[in-house]
Amino acid sequence: MKTLVWVEHDNKHVKDATLATVTAASKLGEVHLLVAGSGAAGVADEAAKIAGVGKVHLADDAAFEHALAENVAPLIVTLMESHDAILFPSTTTGKNIAPRVAALLDVMQISDILSVESPDTFTRPIYAGNAIATVQTSDKKLVITVRGTAFEKAATSGGSGTVEAVGGSGDAGLSTFAGAEIAESTRPELTAAKVIVSGGRALQNSENFHALIEPLADKLGAAVGASRAAVDAGYVPNDYQVGQTGKIVAPEVYIAIGISGAIQHLAGMKDSKTIIAINKDEDAPIFQVADIGLVGDLFKIVPELTEKL
Prior knowledge:
With about 300 residues, the chain is α/β, with parallel strands linked by helices.
C-alpha cells in the first residue's frame, strides 16, 4: 500500500505535526511526502531526511504559498492516481484541505485517527473523546486526518528519500489570500511544548491572566494555553485555546489553573503525561483526570508558586 502524507510547513521548515503523521502512514505501507509551497525546496530536502520516507514530491508554485485548499486539493487528487491513501495532520490546515480532497475523490474522510488496526480499519474518538470508535472503510482511496498526540514522532534524521518535482494546475481562481495576523512569541509553540500552563475563566479578566499565568510560564519555559471560556471572554487570542474546538496537546506537564475541566477542554489535553490542577472547587471535573490537584485560591497559590521556582 502506497501512502502520501501532506507536509505541514511554513515554506522554511517542516512542522512537528508532520512527524506523527509519518509514523501513522508507515503503518499502512510505503510512505511518500508532498511538499507544496513557494520557495520550498529546502523544506523538501529536510523532509527527505525523515526516517522511513521513500520519496518526496515537491510542488513549488506561488499558488501553493499559503496552502489554500482550493489550489492544493486538485494537486493531491492528481497524485492520488498512484497512491492508495493521503494522510494529513489534524491541524487547521490539514482539516481545511482534507474534506475538499475527499469530496473530489468521492470518498468518506476518516477524521482524527488514534490508531491503525489494519489497512482499512482505524480507531477514532467520539463524544469528545469519551468513547473510541473502530471504523472500517470499503473505499479504494483513503483520506485520513491524524491526531498527532496518538502517535510517536518520526525521527527527523536517518532517512534517505529522493525529491521529485511535480506540477500542479496552479491557481484555481476560487480563493485568494488576504492576510494573516500571527501572534509572535518567544515561548514554545503550543502543540510542540513539553510544558504548558493554561488559564481559565476563574482568572476573571485579561489583566489577571497575563499577570499570573505568563510569569509562571516564563519560569518553567512553558507555552501558554487557555480554556475556551477564557478565550471567549477575551482574555487571550483564539490561538491559545486548548480543547476539542482548539488545539490538541499532550505535553510532559500540563498545568490547569482556574479551569473547571469541561468535556470540551479535557478532550484537548487529557493525554498529557502529568496533569496538575489548581482550582478552589474541590468537585471540579478537572480533578478527575489530574495527577496532582491543589484546592485553593489561585490568586494566592500561583504567585507563591512562581516566587518559589
